[in-house]
Amino acid sequence: MPVSAYIFSQSETIQDTCDKLEKSHAALREAHDRLTFVTSHDPMTGLLSRGEFLARMDRKRDEGEYDTLLLIDPDHFSVINDKHGHSKGDEALVRIAKALVYATRPGDSIGRLGGEEFGVLLRHVRKEQASTIAENIRRLIEGSPWVKGQQDGVKVTVSIGGAEIPRDADAQDVLRTAGRCLFEAKQRGRNRVSFDYEAAKLRVVTP
Q: pTM to 2 decimals?
């Protein structure tokens, strides 16, 4: 075989090998991306997992940004499960998740923190604006036809507690603050928003 022909055949072999390696690398990257998504997201709603959500809270604190945390919890959710079955309960959670995505901005973070509790991390938002956003979320979920259905009688409302995130705050401390405000919203009759930490603190410690 002439040298030129041999070199040409070897070049084709090398190119084929490079093409196969590139395809393998692309498949590995795709598999890695899928694995990363699975480990950092809730499988039912597609929202961030609790661990990933808290990690983002910590990163925002380290970056020195000011943000606000919202905790969202459906009212009387056990009644939905008991009356309509867990499949309807799961459907309600998915629809609430979609409402949260619709009502927030692309740069905000939304997570399912466990069970029926959701968290929203509002970037560069202070308490006053966050209260307005939270109220919009509450109204959207209460009034949306795909949640408040007439056919099956399922009605979903949510209570929301909020807390600003100090730049040196620990994520767990902020969660506790917002959790107390969420508790206050429940105690005041549910289907409402509360940022009243002082009232919530007094209610929690008062027998």
A: 0.77
